[in-house]
Design a protein that fits this description.
The protein has twelve helices and 23 strands. By secondary structure, the protein is an alpha+beta fold.
């Protein structure tokens, strides 16, 4: 059997790693330095190039990593050629690709979320924040690689963010519309659910660490680490999420003739009033899936096929009863300006953990940095403390110039 994983980050390396364990010959496009040791990498990037690659290599299963490919309609293109691909359609992926769309849909069907206002004019947005009580949250409408959400503490900061998004267009068209919403207080939980359009099954819960610095300080990032399961998750919480969110969302999509198949990531804030939606993502969370896959006892490929073939109800999904910790090693300066091209030392000495590559490439037989988030170091254990001890002891063996990582991942 042959599998294709689309993407080039730590999430994709984790997917490649799991599928290879299950006996697949794995291809990846475009991949990265570490992935190239576990899969055959191709430079295919456009939807058409990816489609031609899958047809040429007779791919049995394709798994989409990044949201950008979903927004471009890669699932629709593959399905039109009879190929099996895991992920939602272009229309369904609007839940992530447009925060305006997601907010309006939640408002329409009564899904609990932060109170919000929408703006496509920076002047009107600035007039609105003059009347706001702080903190507030300002979000770019479109995709921004996990960096388009700002917790704003003052009017001056709000004006700067509005200017950054709507006038300077740091995220291009993604910032032409913005959402300004109330700041929710509570415990943040990430929950991913699998759905084949008929049945919805929760994955094991996880919790990510968005802020760049210890104690959740500094700007948001694509994620500096994750643990699984989330310590504050419970069956009671899942029942509440299903009743208040899931059972309203999918019928609302069906009314728009949208059948959602794949994984749906719910970024939740558990408030005094119950769970509320912070965001939807239409793909596996990164770095949450890096923490989750080492705990997945079932075969990932069987799960994907069950979703694609609308057979999820008959497939039991089994998880190991352990804890998992994933720590991201980043380039100094991330998520802002950072340098690349530094040789990575010590990887050959690491043992007892799994290292997923995110921003690396191979150069003259060596791994060098090529992105902001460089490596994901993951371990499991009977407790969070046991898992984090393994991770941090092995991180001490790794070095590249300017490397940075949070030291509080897994402290619960």
């Amino acid at each position: 059997m042959r599998a294709l994983v689309i993407g080039s980050g730590g999430r994709e390396h984790a997917l490649v790693w799991k599928l290879r364990q299950e006996g697949f010959e794995v291809f990846c496009a475009p991949g990265n330095g570490g992935i190239s040791l576990d899969a055959t990498c191709h430079e295919a990037k456009s939807v058409d190039e990816l489609l031609q690659l899958a047809l040429r290599e007779r791919i049995d299963l394709t798994v989409v990593g990044p949201e950008a490919y979903l927004a471009q309609g890669v699932v629709d293109a593959f399905e039109s050629c009879g190929l099996k691909i895991f992920g939602p359609s272009k229309r369904a992926s609007q839940l992530e690709c447009s925060k305006v769309y997601a907010k309006l849909l939640m408002d329409e069907c009564g899904i609990p979320t932060a109170r919000f206002r929408l703006f496509d004019d920076p002047v009107q947005a600035e007039r609105y924040v003059e009347r706001c009580e702080f903190p507030i949250v300002i979000k770019a409408d479109g995709l921004a690689q996990g960096k388009g959400s700002y917790v704003v503490m003052s009017r001056e900061e709000a004006f700067n963010v509005i200017d950054l998004l709507m006038r300077k267009k740091v995220f291009g068209e993604s910032g032409e519309r913005i959402v300004i919403e109330e700041f929710l207080k509570g415990r943040e939980v990430s929950l991913m659910v699998l759905t084949d359009g008929k049945t919805c099954v929760p994955m094991l819960s996880a919790m990510d660490y968005k802020k760049v610095y210890d104690e959740d300080r500094g700007p948001n990032t694509g994620g500096m680490g994750a643990i699984a399961p989330a310590p504050h998750h419970s069956e009671e919480l899942w029942r509440s999420v299903k009743e208040r969110i899931i059972d309203k969302l999918f019928p609302a999509l069906e009314k728009q003739n949208v059948i959602y198949k794949g994984v749906l990531y719910l970024g939740l804030m558990v408030t005094q009033d119950g769970p509320k939606v912070l965001e939807f993502n239409c793909r596996f969370g990164d770095p949450e899936i890096q923490a989750l896959l080492p705990l997945l006892q079932s075969k990932l490929a069987e799960v994907c096929f069950a979703v694609i073939e609308e057979n999820l109800a008959s497939l039991p999904i089994v998880w190991r009863e352990e804890k998992s910790v994933c720590v991201v090693i980043a380039s100094g300066g991330y998520p802002n300006d950072y340098k690349v091209g530094f040789e990575i030392h010590g990887l050959e000495s690491v043992e007892g953990v799994v290292v997923f590559h995110a921003g690396t490439k191979r150069q003259n037989g060596q791994f060098v940095t090529s992105g902001g988030r460089v490596l994901n170091v993951c371990a499991t254990g009977r407790t969070y403390e046991e898992a984090r001890r393994r991770v941090y002891s092995e991180i001490e063996k790794i070095y590249f110039e300017g490397m940075y990582f949070r030291r509080d991942i897994g402290l619960v």
